[in-house]
Amino acid sequence: MSKENRINFSSKMAVVAAAAGSAVGLGNIWRFPYELGQYGGAAFLVLYILFVILLGIPIMLSEFAIGRSGQSDAVGSFRKIDPRGKWWLIGVMGVISAFLIMGFYSVVSGWTFEYIYQALTNQFAGKDSASLAAGFTEFSSHPYRPLLWAVLFMAISAGIVLLGVKEGIEKSTKFLMPLLFIIIIALGIRSVTLPGGIEGLTFLFHPDFSKINSSVILSAMGQAFFSLSLGMGCMITYGSYVNKKNKLTHTVAEVTVLDTLVAVLAAVAIFPAAFSLGVNPGQGPELVFITLPSVFAQLPGGQFWAVLFFILLSVAAMTSIISLLEVVVAYVTEEFKLKREPVTVAVTLAVLVFSVMSSLSFGVWKDVTIFGLTFFDLFDNATSKVLMPLGGLLISLFAGWVMPVETLRREISNAGELKLKLFNVYLFLIRYIAPLGILLVMLNF
Ligand code: TRP
Q1: What does the domain layout of the chain look like in residue ranges?
Q2: What tens digit of pLDDT does each residue of 163-172 get?
Q3: Vertex 42, ends 36 and 44: CA angle to 5°?
Q4: Which CATH number fits domain 12-444: 1.10.4160, 2.20.110, 2.60.40, 3.30.1520?
Q5: Residues contacting ligand 1 via CB (< 6 Å)
Q6: Which of 81, 106, 269, 275 could bond to 199 as cystine, CB 3.0-4.6 Å?
Q7: With helix as H, strand as E and coil as C, how does 125-175 read?
């Protein structure tokens, strides 16, 4: 696509909406709480925030700068900036990661559809957490029911991607995200005021640093990449649609703060309730799907809140999966000069192969494992613990050492228009701290 007809987000708000729409999703509300529950509570939170600040912010800024400067997809942007190097392979790795992430993400997204349905038909009412847990297991292990929801979810997402970046994403994020925010706060208040809820807050905010070990550190770092949609070309692709006037530093700051806030609020909604209702905080992917329905059962007008919450959660998941689809669709259409429509359909069908494998991991393929992991866990671990950190490492090396500093400065300062007080801090982080930090964590010190 030539520079002239490249799609552009229409306003500053739209950029933030799209990037935040990508970042805020199941990663915040589903994955963050369950990882935190498994990896020791507050200590995990402290590490997570440290990674967001030291790695997340500089890498997100770099991805935006690479995309906006390269004016191309996740692969093409590297090639535009450095035509002779092999750095474009980072983009290829990103495209592969996108498939794996969508494979398990689509399944969990499908679960949110089932939960809208269960809320609509008032199935949480009067159930305790044990029977909600049993209900979850029964549903998730069903051979095709979760898959039908995943297919429906992918079909709608693909439809939105077909409508184009602008129409599809901007609208849903601008109106529905703030609503999700409000609901999570309301849930948080209910959860904290449940009897025994304070114990959950202690778990969440009173760090026990003896719980930190190398696997906690790696998980916290992986979660930071996952939640901020980093290390696989997503923000590069979106960066290429960002208008030259947009202040990248502001966009990064807003997206990061929003994303972190939603994750922490989700944890505040979940842990006090889990402790109060006797749900094991370390039980894994089903945590949200058991804990929150238990809270809804205790809320006046619970059914209404439950329906609204799961609708909004599925919207948040959709704006995220759209950004993942866009990475692949932009790459294939631009690099192979193909039409958007057939590419979107083909990519979606290919993703569904991974969805089937992930979904069956909870049922008939429970015992099919590779490296001791089910397909679902394999796709999840391979991306957030290997591919995304590796992508982040290479992106920081590219931005810090390969991309000319002047190009970087021009992108971040909008051709000298903005004063950059912290540019040297950024440069130091991206050149030394990010690559060394990621390497140390990945090599287990
Ligand atoms: N960040 C999203 C979430 O938290 C998921 C996501 C969207 C993502 N795009 C990504 C994760 C790219 C990794 C890479 O739900």
Answers
A1: 12-444
A2: 766 666 677 6
A3: 50
A4: 1.10.4160
A5: 22-23, 25-28, 101, 226-227, 229, 232, 234, 320, 323-324
A6: 275
A7: CCCCHHHHHHHHHHHHCCCCHHHHHHHHHHHHHHHHHHHCHHHHHHHHHHH
